[in-house]
Amino acid sequence: MRLEPIANPTTARRLGYPALAILATLAVAALLARIAGADPLAALGQIATGALGSKLAILETLNRATPLIFTGLAVAVAFRAKLWNIGAEAQLYAGAIMAVVLGTGALGSPLVLPVSALAALLAGAMLLLGPVLLKTRLGVDEVVTTLLLNFIMLLFVSYLLEGPMKDPMGMGWPKSAALTPEARLPRIVDGLRLHWGFGLALIAAVLVWLIQIRTTLGFEIRAVGQSPEAARFAGMPVNAVLVKTALLSGGLAALAGWSEVAGLKGHLSQDLSPGFGYTGIIVAMLALLHPLGVVLSALFVAGIFVGSDAMSRAAGVPTYIADMLLATALLFMVLAILLTRVRVVRG
After folding, report:
1. Is 126 domain-assigned?
2. Rounded to 5 degrees, what are φ and ψ at 342?
3. 224 assigned to some structural domain
């Protein structure tokens, strides 16, 4: 057997295989629930109810989806140009640090919120600038450099929380001081945790989509991603396009950390992110790197996380099933993407 490329995949093929991947993921979820000793249909129902069964559940799902939209967009933008940004986790923490630096009294005016957002965006952009320059100038693999930056940033955050940024009123706990009220994102619904970071994430998705379909940069990103050699032959500044892509990707990931601190937590801690940067890769792949699809994909992934917590409490099923589901969904989606582009031919 051999794989034969498909020049122009049909719409049915491009949509059908991803749909089958989602169905296969649900089948695996049912199997895992059965292995854990729960009724498969009841377990899936509890996931749906836990994520969407009440106003509180829906708002919590939207809250969980907010950083995933930002990191998913960051990964989608970079991967579209074949720039393998695995460091969204580090860029997220860079944005969170800037939210604390500017939001704990340094700026006591209404401007602190937009200024800290801009500073976070720039911090994330600069953090990815190093790896992309190493790639374009020296040919260093950005997968390695961006991945290692995740661990470096976590150690740096640990140093800050045990030293310069440690809250003197924190009773010894490694966390930063709380943000001032002016530095906090307002709630969308009074009395509930959903904040305007979700609205900003939706705006970011639309803006990225418009950049991709309406601007020269979007065309260049697609061209470089499809064939850097052809783009270079056509006169495109490939290295400059990769740098611009990195700045946009790193800034988007940093906004995830900024929104978590300014909108939800109110302070920085080392466990701010349970892996939002890495999960952003799954979100982007499930969305087939489409910016608007990232929103739906992030909601799906957030629903699995929130719903799995409810399922665990109701049915006694381990919560790590959610991680297994997302890993399975990613594997199935990668296979689906492959099958949309090639066909298996015997002989």
Report:
1. yes
2. -135, 160
3. yes
Angle between helices 142-162 and 88-103 (to 10 degrees): 30
The pLDDT score that the predictor gives to residue 316 is: 67
Structure tokens at 179: 């943000």
Angle formed by the axes of helices 238-259 and 112-138, nearest 10°: 140
Identify the domain containing residue 101 by its residue range. Answer: 66-288
> How many structural domains comprise the chain?
1
Positive or negative, the Cα torsion across 155, 198, 71, 224?
Answer: negative
pLDDT in tens, 174-228: 888 888 888 899 988 777 788 899 999 999 999 999 999 999 999 999 999 988 8
Residue 328 lies in a domain: no
CB 197 within 8 A of CB 263: yes
Q: Is residue 259 part of a domain?
A: yes
Q: Which of 212, 189, 156 is nearest to 223 (CA)?
A: 212
